[in-house]
Amino acid sequence: MAIEIEKVKGIIVPIIIPVDKEENIDEAKLRFMVNHVIDNGVHGILAFGSNSEFYMFDEDEMIDGLKIILDEAKKRVPVYFCIGAIRTRNCIRLAKRAAALDIDGISVLQPMFIQPTEDSLYDHFKAIADAVPDTAVLLYNNPGRTGYTMSGNLVEKLAHNVANIVGMKDSSGDITQLSEFVRRNQDIEFHVLSGKDTIIFAGMAVGAVGSVCSTANIYPTLVSGIYNKYVAGDLEGSLKDQFTLNPIRLSQDKCSFPAATKDMANLMGLDVGLPIRPTQATKGEALENMKHFMREAGYID
Protein backbone atom coordinates (compact mmCIF):
# COMPACT_ATOMS: atom_id res chain seq x y z
CA MET A 1 0.00 0.00 0.00
CA ALA A 2 1.18 3.55 -0.65
CA ILE A 3 2.48 5.55 2.29
CA GLU A 4 0.39 8.69 2.74
CA ILE A 5 2.32 10.86 5.15
CA GLU A 6 -0.11 13.75 4.70
CA LYS A 7 -2.66 11.74 6.70
CA VAL A 8 -0.44 11.87 9.79
CA LYS A 9 -1.90 14.90 11.54
CA GLY A 10 -4.60 16.13 13.87
CA ILE A 11 -5.87 14.51 17.04
CA ILE A 12 -5.18 10.78 17.11
CA VAL A 13 -6.77 8.87 19.97
CA PRO A 14 -5.12 5.86 21.64
CA ILE A 15 -8.48 4.19 21.85
CA ILE A 16 -9.73 2.61 25.07
CA ILE A 17 -10.08 -1.17 24.77
CA PRO A 18 -13.14 -2.19 26.82
CA VAL A 19 -13.07 -5.66 28.36
CA ASP A 20 -15.75 -7.84 29.94
CA LYS A 21 -15.69 -9.42 33.42
CA GLU A 22 -13.36 -12.17 32.17
CA GLU A 23 -11.05 -9.48 30.72
CA ASN A 24 -11.78 -10.45 27.14
CA ILE A 25 -12.22 -7.66 24.59
CA ASP A 26 -15.82 -6.47 24.63
CA GLU A 27 -16.49 -6.19 20.90
CA ALA A 28 -19.77 -4.30 21.16
CA LYS A 29 -18.30 -1.66 23.47
CA LEU A 30 -15.16 -1.36 21.35
CA ARG A 31 -17.30 -0.74 18.27
CA PHE A 32 -19.23 1.86 20.28
CA MET A 33 -15.97 3.63 21.21
CA VAL A 34 -14.81 3.69 17.59
CA ASN A 35 -18.01 5.45 16.54
CA HIS A 36 -17.98 7.71 19.59
CA VAL A 37 -14.54 9.16 18.82
CA ILE A 38 -15.05 9.40 15.05
CA ASP A 39 -18.50 10.95 15.29
CA ASN A 40 -17.16 13.55 17.71
CA GLY A 41 -14.27 14.72 15.60
CA VAL A 42 -10.99 12.84 16.08
CA HIS A 43 -8.70 12.69 13.07
CA GLY A 44 -7.25 9.22 13.63
CA ILE A 45 -7.22 6.14 15.89
CA LEU A 46 -4.20 4.46 17.45
CA ALA A 47 -4.99 0.85 18.31
CA PHE A 48 -3.22 -0.58 21.36
CA GLY A 49 -1.33 2.49 22.46
CA SER A 50 -0.30 3.01 26.08
CA ASN A 51 -3.80 4.00 27.22
CA SER A 52 -5.19 1.07 25.22
CA GLU A 53 -3.32 -1.17 27.69
CA PHE A 54 -1.29 -2.91 24.95
CA TYR A 55 0.96 -4.52 27.57
CA MET A 56 -2.04 -6.48 28.93
CA PHE A 57 -2.94 -8.30 25.70
CA ASP A 58 -1.34 -11.16 23.81
CA GLU A 59 -0.60 -10.86 20.09
CA ASP A 60 -3.74 -12.65 18.88
CA GLU A 61 -5.94 -10.46 21.08
CA MET A 62 -4.32 -7.33 19.69
CA ILE A 63 -4.74 -8.42 16.08
CA ASP A 64 -8.36 -9.42 16.72
CA GLY A 65 -8.99 -6.03 18.35
CA LEU A 66 -7.33 -4.24 15.44
CA LYS A 67 -9.58 -6.06 12.99
CA ILE A 68 -12.66 -4.93 14.93
CA ILE A 69 -11.44 -1.31 14.95
CA LEU A 70 -10.67 -1.36 11.21
CA ASP A 71 -14.03 -2.95 10.40
CA GLU A 72 -15.96 -0.36 12.42
CA ALA A 73 -13.89 2.65 11.32
CA LYS A 74 -14.57 1.85 7.66
CA LYS A 75 -11.76 4.14 6.49
CA ARG A 76 -13.47 7.21 7.94
CA VAL A 77 -10.21 8.10 9.72
CA PRO A 78 -6.69 6.63 9.54
CA VAL A 79 -6.01 3.71 11.89
CA TYR A 80 -2.54 3.05 13.30
CA PHE A 81 -1.28 0.09 15.33
CA CYS A 82 1.12 0.50 18.26
CA ILE A 83 3.89 -2.01 18.96
CA GLY A 84 5.53 -2.04 22.38
CA ALA A 85 7.31 -5.39 22.52
CA ILE A 86 10.88 -5.45 23.79
CA ARG A 87 12.42 -8.06 21.50
CA THR A 88 13.11 -6.96 17.93
CA ARG A 89 11.95 -10.29 16.48
CA ASN A 90 8.62 -10.02 18.29
CA CYS A 91 8.14 -6.46 17.04
CA ILE A 92 8.83 -7.58 13.48
CA ARG A 93 6.32 -10.40 13.73
CA LEU A 94 3.62 -8.04 15.06
CA ALA A 95 4.46 -5.41 12.45
CA LYS A 96 4.04 -7.92 9.63
CA ARG A 97 0.72 -9.18 11.02
CA ALA A 98 -0.61 -5.64 11.34
CA ALA A 99 0.71 -4.56 7.95
CA ALA A 100 -1.15 -7.45 6.31
CA LEU A 101 -4.35 -5.64 7.30
CA ASP A 102 -5.64 -2.35 5.86
CA ILE A 103 -3.86 -0.11 8.37
CA ASP A 104 -2.42 3.34 7.76
CA GLY A 105 0.77 2.81 9.73
CA ILE A 106 2.43 1.41 12.82
CA SER A 107 3.83 3.17 15.87
CA VAL A 108 6.83 1.62 17.61
CA LEU A 109 7.75 2.36 21.23
CA GLN A 110 11.38 2.23 22.29
CA PRO A 111 12.02 -0.98 24.26
CA MET A 112 11.06 -0.69 27.92
CA PHE A 113 12.89 -2.15 30.94
CA ILE A 114 16.24 -2.46 29.12
CA GLN A 115 18.32 0.55 28.03
CA PRO A 116 19.89 -0.18 24.63
CA THR A 117 22.74 1.83 23.14
CA GLU A 118 21.93 4.28 20.36
CA ASP A 119 23.41 1.87 17.80
CA SER A 120 21.19 -0.90 19.16
CA LEU A 121 18.11 1.33 19.01
CA TYR A 122 18.90 2.39 15.45
CA ASP A 123 19.21 -1.23 14.36
CA HIS A 124 16.01 -2.14 16.24
CA PHE A 125 13.84 0.50 14.58
CA LYS A 126 15.44 0.02 11.16
CA ALA A 127 14.89 -3.75 11.26
CA ILE A 128 11.20 -3.29 12.08
CA ALA A 129 10.70 -0.64 9.39
CA ASP A 130 12.59 -2.71 6.81
CA ALA A 131 10.30 -5.66 7.53
CA VAL A 132 7.26 -3.63 6.40
CA PRO A 133 8.71 -1.34 3.69
CA ASP A 134 5.34 -0.30 2.29
CA THR A 135 3.92 0.72 5.69
CA ALA A 136 4.34 4.10 7.38
CA VAL A 137 6.29 3.82 10.63
CA LEU A 138 6.03 6.33 13.47
CA LEU A 139 8.59 6.35 16.26
CA TYR A 140 7.11 6.56 19.77
CA ASN A 141 9.24 8.26 22.43
CA ASN A 142 7.89 7.77 25.96
CA PRO A 143 10.69 8.32 28.50
CA GLY A 144 8.28 8.39 31.43
CA ARG A 145 7.36 4.74 30.84
CA THR A 146 10.60 3.34 29.42
CA GLY A 147 13.09 5.11 31.67
CA TYR A 148 15.10 6.83 28.92
CA THR A 149 14.53 9.15 26.00
CA MET A 150 15.25 8.86 22.31
CA SER A 151 17.84 11.47 21.40
CA GLY A 152 17.63 14.05 18.68
CA ASN A 153 20.60 12.41 16.98
CA LEU A 154 18.88 9.02 16.86
CA VAL A 155 15.60 10.38 15.53
CA GLU A 156 17.38 12.49 12.90
CA LYS A 157 19.44 9.50 11.73
CA LEU A 158 16.39 7.25 11.47
CA ALA A 159 14.26 9.90 9.77
CA HIS A 160 16.92 10.65 7.17
CA ASN A 161 18.02 7.09 6.44
CA VAL A 162 14.94 4.85 6.68
CA ALA A 163 12.44 5.80 3.99
CA ASN A 164 9.25 4.59 5.66
CA ILE A 165 9.97 6.14 9.06
CA VAL A 166 7.87 9.21 8.38
CA GLY A 167 7.09 10.66 11.80
CA MET A 168 6.94 10.22 15.54
CA LYS A 169 4.95 10.67 18.70
CA ASP A 170 6.89 12.40 21.48
CA SER A 171 5.42 11.90 24.95
CA SER A 172 8.32 13.50 26.81
CA GLY A 173 6.24 16.57 27.66
CA ASP A 174 9.44 18.56 27.09
CA ILE A 175 8.62 21.30 24.61
CA THR A 176 12.31 21.93 23.89
CA GLN A 177 12.88 18.29 22.99
CA LEU A 178 9.72 18.25 20.89
CA SER A 179 10.84 21.35 19.03
CA GLU A 180 14.27 19.78 18.39
CA PHE A 181 12.64 16.72 16.82
CA VAL A 182 10.83 19.14 14.50
CA ARG A 183 13.79 21.44 13.81
CA ARG A 184 16.30 18.72 13.05
CA ASN A 185 14.01 17.09 10.49
CA GLN A 186 12.42 20.11 8.82
CA ASP A 187 14.45 19.52 5.65
CA ILE A 188 12.45 16.33 4.97
CA GLU A 189 8.79 15.39 5.23
CA PHE A 190 8.70 14.14 8.82
CA HIS A 191 5.58 14.63 10.93
CA VAL A 192 5.98 15.10 14.68
CA LEU A 193 3.02 14.63 17.04
CA SER A 194 3.07 15.67 20.68
CA GLY A 195 2.06 12.96 23.11
CA LYS A 196 1.02 15.10 26.08
CA ASP A 197 -2.55 16.31 26.08
CA THR A 198 -1.57 19.48 27.96
CA ILE A 199 0.72 20.80 25.20
CA ILE A 200 -1.30 20.33 22.01
CA PHE A 201 -1.33 24.10 21.40
CA ALA A 202 2.32 24.60 22.37
CA GLY A 203 3.40 21.67 20.24
CA MET A 204 1.73 23.06 17.16
CA ALA A 205 3.33 26.43 17.81
CA VAL A 206 6.76 24.79 17.37
CA GLY A 207 5.78 22.79 14.31
CA ALA A 208 4.03 19.63 15.51
CA VAL A 209 1.23 18.48 13.21
CA GLY A 210 -1.10 17.43 16.01
CA SER A 211 -1.18 15.23 19.06
CA VAL A 212 -1.91 11.71 20.31
CA CYS A 213 -4.32 12.27 23.21
CA SER A 214 -5.90 9.79 25.61
CA THR A 215 -8.44 12.41 26.73
CA ALA A 216 -9.86 12.38 23.19
CA ASN A 217 -11.56 9.14 24.23
CA ILE A 218 -13.58 11.14 26.74
CA TYR A 219 -13.76 14.70 25.37
CA PRO A 220 -13.22 14.22 21.62
CA THR A 221 -15.00 17.43 20.62
CA LEU A 222 -13.02 19.58 23.05
CA VAL A 223 -9.66 18.01 22.25
CA SER A 224 -10.19 18.05 18.48
CA GLY A 225 -11.28 21.68 18.81
CA ILE A 226 -7.79 22.66 20.01
CA TYR A 227 -6.35 21.40 16.73
CA ASN A 228 -9.17 22.53 14.45
CA LYS A 229 -9.23 26.07 15.80
CA TYR A 230 -5.44 26.35 15.64
CA VAL A 231 -5.23 25.38 11.96
CA ALA A 232 -8.19 27.68 11.19
CA GLY A 233 -6.25 30.59 12.69
CA ASP A 234 -8.43 30.94 15.79
CA LEU A 235 -5.50 30.91 18.20
CA GLU A 236 -7.50 32.48 21.03
CA GLY A 237 -10.19 29.81 20.76
CA SER A 238 -7.63 27.05 20.51
CA LEU A 239 -5.80 28.20 23.62
CA LYS A 240 -9.08 28.59 25.49
CA ASP A 241 -9.94 24.94 24.72
CA GLN A 242 -6.44 23.89 25.79
CA PHE A 243 -6.83 25.66 29.11
CA THR A 244 -10.26 24.06 29.59
CA LEU A 245 -8.72 20.63 29.08
CA ASN A 246 -5.57 21.02 31.17
CA PRO A 247 -7.00 20.96 34.73
CA ILE A 248 -9.12 17.92 33.86
CA ARG A 249 -6.16 16.08 32.38
CA LEU A 250 -3.84 17.03 35.25
CA SER A 251 -6.36 15.70 37.76
CA GLN A 252 -5.61 12.22 36.38
CA ASP A 253 -2.03 12.38 37.64
CA LYS A 254 -3.08 11.44 41.17
CA CYS A 255 -4.49 8.17 39.84
CA SER A 256 -2.76 4.96 38.84
CA PHE A 257 -1.72 4.77 35.19
CA PRO A 258 -3.64 3.79 33.10
CA ALA A 259 -6.74 3.48 35.29
CA ALA A 260 -7.60 7.18 35.09
CA THR A 261 -8.60 7.08 31.43
CA LYS A 262 -11.18 4.33 31.95
CA ASP A 263 -12.28 5.84 35.27
CA MET A 264 -12.96 9.22 33.67
CA ALA A 265 -14.70 7.62 30.68
CA ASN A 266 -16.98 5.74 33.04
CA LEU A 267 -17.75 8.94 34.97
CA MET A 268 -18.86 10.40 31.64
CA GLY A 269 -21.24 7.48 31.12
CA LEU A 270 -19.25 5.72 28.39
CA ASP A 271 -19.36 2.38 30.29
CA VAL A 272 -16.00 1.04 29.11
CA GLY A 273 -15.52 -1.39 31.98
CA LEU A 274 -12.64 -1.80 34.40
CA PRO A 275 -8.93 -1.49 33.81
CA ILE A 276 -7.15 -4.82 33.42
CA ARG A 277 -5.63 -6.32 36.55
CA PRO A 278 -3.38 -5.72 38.36
CA THR A 279 -4.49 -2.13 37.69
CA GLN A 280 -7.59 -1.27 39.69
CA ALA A 281 -10.22 1.42 39.37
CA THR A 282 -9.50 4.67 41.18
CA LYS A 283 -11.10 5.23 44.59
CA GLY A 284 -11.14 7.75 47.39
CA GLU A 285 -9.47 11.14 47.26
CA ALA A 286 -7.97 10.69 43.79
CA LEU A 287 -11.38 9.85 42.33
CA GLU A 288 -13.02 12.80 44.09
CA ASN A 289 -10.28 15.08 42.77
CA MET A 290 -11.05 14.04 39.19
CA LYS A 291 -14.76 14.57 39.77
CA HIS A 292 -14.07 18.04 41.14
CA PHE A 293 -12.27 19.23 38.01
CA MET A 294 -14.75 17.53 35.68
CA ARG A 295 -17.53 19.29 37.56
CA GLU A 296 -15.74 22.66 37.35
CA ALA A 297 -15.51 22.24 33.57
CA GLY A 298 -19.20 21.45 33.37
CA TYR A 299 -18.90 17.84 32.28
CA ILE A 300 -20.64 16.20 35.25
CA ASP A 301 -23.16 17.47 37.78
List the helices and strands and how they pair.
Blueprint: E1 10-14, H1 27-39, E2 44-47, H2 59-73, E3 79-83, H3 88-99, E4 105-109, H4 118-131, E5 137-141, H5 143-146, H6 152-161, E6 165-170, H7 175-183, E7 191-194, H8 200-205, E8 210-212, H9 220-231, H10 235-251, H11 259-267, H12 284-296
Parallel strand pairs: 1-2, 1-8, 2-3, 3-4, 4-5, 5-6, 6-7
What would the keywords be for this entry?
eight-stranded parallel sheet; 8 strands; alpha/beta; 301 residues
Structural commentary:
45% of the residues lie in helices and 12% in strands. It is an alpha/beta fold and 301 residues long. Strands 7-6-5-4-3-2-1-8 form an eight-stranded parallel sheet. Strand 2, helix 2 (59-73) and strand 3 form a beta-alpha-beta unit. Helix 1 packs across helix 2, helix 3 (88-99) packs parallel to helix 4 (118-131) and helix 9 (220-231) packs antiparallel against helix 10 (235-251). The chain starts with 9 loop residues before the first strand and ends in a 5-residue tail after the last helix. The model has no long low-confidence stretch (mean pLDDT 97).
